[in-house]
Design a protein that fits this description.
about 260 residues, alpha/beta, Rossmann fold, 8 strands, about 35% helix, about 20% strand, disordered N terminus
């Protein structure tokens, strides 16, 4: 059943104030010049990483030139927001389930997907609700979410339970460095006004080493870490070995 924002309880895996903040700006998810502009700009690099990591990690062999290279895969996008990740994954052929605790956000995602004639299973629920059913997925994605969660280990324990044996968990988040404080908070929130002030809490950023220890501690195998960097002159994002600010981590559940 959908979860009402008014009745969401505080827990180690959910910050009610974070849900409320994103609910207030849910109508802006698909505005490329609005509050979610940074996510639109980093989309191509992010999707390139995800596509290649899934193909290589699951040893897929799509036909040469195929567009639906993820055809038939079951993917769960936790904290899906307005669908900026779910929609491209669906276009690549995956059966996508997108979950988010915000009713307003899920409404925006569902409306946009319907207008694009995309079939995506959007639900205004939490990861705990899916985990309670025992359902698992080939890939679970959790992008730009863990930095908004009170207890990362508790949250990722639930996320890991949703990955089938041999499947993948794909994460992206922000490193806790002075560079990330300068760029992601001072620069993005106060100077450039890319995102609303208060979007991020630096103390919740997590280093790659810390995240890898959590991932391995809950029984997954950390496989690769990649940075994502912004070129202000070209106004583009690209993959990099520099993980000082934004980075990805992929992990596999053992068979």
């Amino acid at each position: 059943m959908p979860t009402s924002n008014a009745t969401l309880d505080q827990s180690p895996t959910l910050d009610h104030s974070e849900v409320e903040r994103f609910s207030r700006i849910a109508a802006e998810w698909w505005d490329p010049n609005g509050n979610f502009r940074p996510l639109h700009k980093l989309g191509p690099a992010r999707m390139g990483y995800m596509r290649d990591t899934i193909i290589n990690g699951l040893k897929l062999t799509p036909p040469v030139g195929a567009l639906r290279v993820l055809d038939g895969l079951k993917i769960l996008d936790i904290g899906c927001g307005g669908g900026l990740v779910a929609e491209p994954l669906a276009r690549l052929g995956a059966h996508v389930t997108g979950i988010d605790p915000s009713l307003e956000t899920i409404a925006a995602a569902s409306t946009h997907a319907a207008a694009q004639d995309l079939s995506i299973d959007y639900r205004a629920i939490r990861a705990e609700d899916i985990a309670a059913t025992g359902k698992t997925y080939d890939v679970v994605t959790c992008l730009e979410v863990v930095e908004h969660v009170p207890d990362v280990r508790a949250f990722l324990t639930i996320a890991a339970s949703l990955v089938r044996p041999g499947g993948l968990l794909l994460l992206s988040t922000l490193n806790r460095t002075m560079k990330s404080y300068a760029l992601a908070i001072i620069g993005a929130e106060y100077v450039l006004r890319w995102v609303p002030v208060g979007t991020h809490q630096w103390q919740r950023f997590i280093t790659p080493d810390e995240l890898e220890k959590i991932v391995t501690g809950i029984g997954l195998i950390a496989e690769s870490s990649r940075g994502l960097v912004f070129n202000p002159l070209a106004d583009t994002w690209s993959l990099s070995g520099d993980t000082d600010v934004n980075y990805f981590l992929s992990a596999r559940k053992p068979h």
